[in-house]
Amino acid sequence: MFEAIAFYLFAVLTIVMFTITVMTSQALYAITAMAAGMIFISAFFFILGADFLGAIQIIVYTGAVMALYAFGMMFFDTTRNVVEKKVNPQIVFVLGVLAAVMVVAIFVAPIISDNIQALYPIDPTIGNSQAVGMVLFTKYLVPFELAAVMLLVAMIGGIIMAGKKMDKSLTLMAEEEIGMMDDSYRAEEGGH
Amino acid sequence: MDVAFIIETIAKIVVILLIFSALAGLGTYFERKVLAFMQRRLGPMHVGPFGLLQVAADGIKLFTKEDIIPQNVVKPIFKIAPVITAATAFMASAAIPFWPQFTVMGYTVHPIVADINVGILYVLGVMAIGLYGPLLGGMASANKWSLISAARSAAIFISYEVITGLALLAPLMMVGSLSLVDINNYQAGGITNWIVWSQPVAFVLFWIAAFAETGRTPFHLVANDHEIIDGFGTEYSGMRWGLFFIGEYANMFFISFVIAIVFLGGFGDGTFAGAFQLILKVAFFFFFFLWTRAAWPDVRPDQLMWLCWKVLMPIAVLNVVVTGIVMMF
């Protein structure tokens, strides 16, 4: 009974949150509703007994959405509404409906056809963090390693992009020095 | 699910809520007294014996103060931000084993609300959501200083989450479990079995990161004191402002529990002496938060980032690698 109550409560909450994310024109509402929705999704993992995935869902998405907030702060005045320029609403509508139908089809297909079996059923004698680990390091080892390499590439790329003039600290410079740096930078740009 | 279990769980939740919201209030009293003695002042002393009722006076003041919602703020977000900080602090406590199990009149009580097997991940994850409070409060309150403070809180969060995770990884590799009860039982053999002896580096790193996670003084950048105003809390008044503080102090207590359980043996073998020792350890860590505030100035944001990415993170990674090599051979 409690599982049913929890499921319907969190289902409604999640749908409401993501509806707000899509519908609102206020950047702050959108990001906050998205963070809340992502965290509410973890409830489904907990209901299904996948504690590890639930906790990971919370940790990963609080961090990821926090980075979105940083972008929100940079690009928008978050206390005002964002005016969107809608060039062609019909295309957006059609593509949106198509995407929704496709997602529903993907999730309904296994239920209808009924021939998908769990190849790695949960072993009740081990905890579910161990279960995740065993699947990750046997069946999904190659995708796992590939993801690791891709993340490494992204990290190196990020360091190179952000690494320019990293040895100089604006906080420690006097106003004039910053001005001079600005001028020399401009001269350099002009020279090219 | 039987009725006894439901009643027990609700009772535990109520007890934890009552104890820790009261402790959060008392925490402000301790903080003012400790700071006062370290700075050769007397601290609160007029309300009640030794100023103990100052907490009640402050509570009445905060509850009865007008709840001002300034113009131009994003109202729903502005209103919910302090609730997030306070609520997530208490939600995080659900997976902390506060005491060993004990028997009252033939009924065994487990002083942990939900003994999930990924306790430590859950506690730290939910505690981290608490930082959304300052972030949202700052972004919603149409005030430039609040916004800057919110930006700082996001920066601290994103950086120090890395240190917390990497520092914890090494002890977790040794224990082989994410459950706080298992971590505690791993060290049940006594003081020589404490993880702090085999993982001193991880202990220090985690302790430093705890200051950042709770936003305490060397890293108190969410409400930068040098700006004289209160950072994200500038536009808040009354109990909404108070909720931020309940959340902060509750977090200090809970993170002290986590440090004590993970690194310093927790409640040991589960006897009464062990439980009492856990309280002492938590009290020490809480006191250390206050001690640091009296002894150290705040660091600058760029120093904070330097410390995180150029000092602590490499050490944490090295620690994990060395632990792995030692465990393998």
How do you describe this structure in short?
Chain A is mainly α and 192 residues long.
Point out poorly predicted stretches of chain A.
Answer: none
Query: What is the string of helix and strand elements of chain B?
Result: HHHEEHHHHHHHHH
Give the amount of beta strand of chain B, in percent. under 5%
Order of helices and strands of chain A: HHHHHHH
Helix count, DSSP H or I runs of 4 or more residues of chain B: 12
Strand order of the largest sheet of chain B: 1-2
Largest protein-protein interface: A-B, 31 and 37 residues
Intertermini distance of chain B: 46 Å
Shape of chain A: extended
Strand content of chain A: under 5%
Helix content of chain A: over 70%
Spatial gap, N to C terminus of chain A = 70 Å
> How many helices of chain A does DSSP assign?
7
Number of strands of chain B: 2
Mean pLDDT of chain A: 83
The major β-sheet of chain A equals:
none
Radius of gyration of chain A: 24 Å
Compute the gyration radius of chain B: what is it? 20 Å
Percentage of residues in helical conformation of chain B? 55-70%
Flag low-confidence runs of chain B: none
List the SSEs and their pairings.
The complex is a heterodimer of chains A (192) and B (329).
Chain A: H1 2-23, H2 27-47, H3 51-75, H4 89-113, H5 128-137, H6 141-162, H7 175-191
Helix pairs in contact in A: 1-2, 2-3
Chain B: H1 3-38, H2 54-64, H3 75-92, E1 102-104, E2 107-109, H4 119-129, H5 132-140, H6 144-175, H7 180-186, H8 195-198, H9 200-214, H10 238-263, H11 272-295, H12 301-328
